[in-house]
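Chapter summary example.
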Amino acid sequence: MKKPLFWISALAILGTGCSTAQGALFVECIGSEDSNMREEVGRIVREALTNNPEALLPNPEPYLSDRGVDIEAYQREVEAGLNQPWAERRGINYSDRNSTITLVRSPLNPLSAVIAENAMETQSDVMGSEIEIPNLFGFAYQLVGHDWSIFFWESLNYTSVSGTGEIPKAGQLSAGQLSKALGQPAISLTISDTGGIKAYKVFEYGEISEYFYGTGGLIEDCPNSYNFPVQKYILSPNSDIDPAAENQTVCFWSSHRQITAEEIESVSQFTSQSMCELDAYDPDIGVAYLLGRQWPELGHQYTVKNPGFIWQIPFSDREVHSVPDLVRVDFFKFED
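The structure predicted for these 336 residues follows.
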């Protein structure tokens, strides 16, 4: 699957892969040792886009060179990040999308067994096979080298509720219910680029243990159906560059830890960092990736594929093609 990696958007994708020390639910997240240049380029780009975009956008390469950026070294760093083995990646692969997924710290077999109990039909190991699309369906998969398996569902009829993480009439398949059924931690992760929302909920043995909701702009009340004492923070991540930059609102509660506003660089950064600290990874594998079409048609047949991601190296014609190592992909049809 080709990601048209414009040189600026590269900054949002790279640097989210982390390695972790094994242990408790939350672990130390160790970022790439070679990310300093990407961070510096990101700072220069953000400042230029705010204060002097007409000098940057027509020809960004000399603009960066004039400010001390070694373009060839930067390209090598970007390429190394894009070639990072999938088994070592942690965090979030791509934040420019709209979806909710459930990650469960479990091998794929037990997770798929629980999902199958609530499905009308299950097809195991469908990679390379043709499947027929019903009104309500889902996929489960696991990356090689990762402890977490991933489940997501799509509906051709219930698009208005697809971001809730709850499947209409499909049974015990929310993140909390899967956590309880499997006796393992689970995460409900929502990324809505259109709505400017990044949110997650962590469950342990079916009980919520951490909640995060972040959005661009200001909101009066935090979404809080659990009625726990939520911390609310107002962030100004780009105020050092642009005093008029849009603020961000963060809502947070945890039974594991306390955080301060100073610890949250931005909504996107904190969401990816938290996934890394949970030793989890969202590879951005959804319907469009597996079927080659964002909105499949009811009753049509599609072949399930693992095409990989293609990124272009900034300021060059070189591309990186990286294919995720998948243990297996399972397909489920649900009653709608």
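To summarize the output: The CA atoms of residues 142 and 149 lie 4 Å apart.
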